[in-house]
Write a structure and sequence with these properties.
Number of strands: 13
Largest sheet: 8 strands, antiparallel
Shape: globular
Order of helices and strands: EEEEEEEEEEEEE
Biased composition (Low complexity): 29-54
Organism: Nocardia speluncae
Structural class: mainly beta
Number of helices: 0
Protein name: LppU protein
Strand content: 35-45%
Radius of gyration: 17 Å
Distance between the termini: 39 Å
Region (Disordered): 29-57
Length: 198
């Protein structure tokens, strides 16, 4: 059900979009011989229903107010995504807001995901998102249609379970994690999330 609002005497439809995960997760874990960059991430988007509301806040996202550093739960499906506030590092949180933008195309190229809304086909705002990585915590980056899920580190049924062992700042190569390690490389912002596969 699309939210309908009144704008200057005309009615508008607000549509929310999220970047869906690929079958292997939102970003690709790599070994020391490969380092994917933003060109390796999927960029397909779908139109979905936004939360019901009567007005958008200053960042163009209707009925949802998140600040940089806040965490969210992005879920649903690629055709019906939803977003909710969540406490960082909890079971409900799968993404952290890294910036706000006028359009999803304005998000940094190595962002893991975004949530954007549009009115009458024109984007009104976007939340740029990274996976809510927690050192010592585990994620199934191959689960869900719009993103990863936080899991218990003893989980045996994860599609692509990883445990975060370190986050290396000022690095743009998985070798920062050590020989034979795997990691998620964020080349534009120069950090690497080092992981062990479950």
């Amino acid at each position: 059900m699309a939210a309908v609002i009144a704008v200057a005497g005309c009615s508008s439809t607000i549509d929310g979009r999220a970047l869906p995960a690929t079958e292997t997760g939102t970003v690709d874990a790599v070994d020391v011989t490969t380092t994917p960059d933003a060109g390796d991430r999927t960029t397909t988007t779908t139109t979905t229903t936004a939360p019901t509301t009567t007005e958008a806040d200053e960042d163009g996202i209707a009925g949802f107010d998140a600040e940089v550093g806040d965490c969210v739960q992005l879920g649903g499906t690629t055709t019906d995504a939803d977003i909710e506030e969540a406490s960082c590092g909890t079971a409900a949180s799968n993404y952290r807001v890294i910036s706000k933008a006028a359009r999803s195309s304005d998000c940094v190229s190595d962002a893991d995901n975004y949530y954007a809304e549009s009115r009458n086909g024109v984007e009104t705002g976007a939340l740029c998102l990274d996976i809510d990585w927690v050192i010592g915590g585990c994620m199934d980056v191959g689960s869900g249609s719009t993103g990863p899920d936080r899991i218990d580190c003893t989980e045996t049924t994860a599609v692509d379970g990883v445990k975060v062992v370190a986050i290396e700042e000022n690095a743009d190569d998985v070798n920062a994690c050590g020989a034979g390690s795997s990691g998620y490389v964020y080349t534009e912002r120069r950090f690497v999330v080092c992981v062990e596969e479950l």
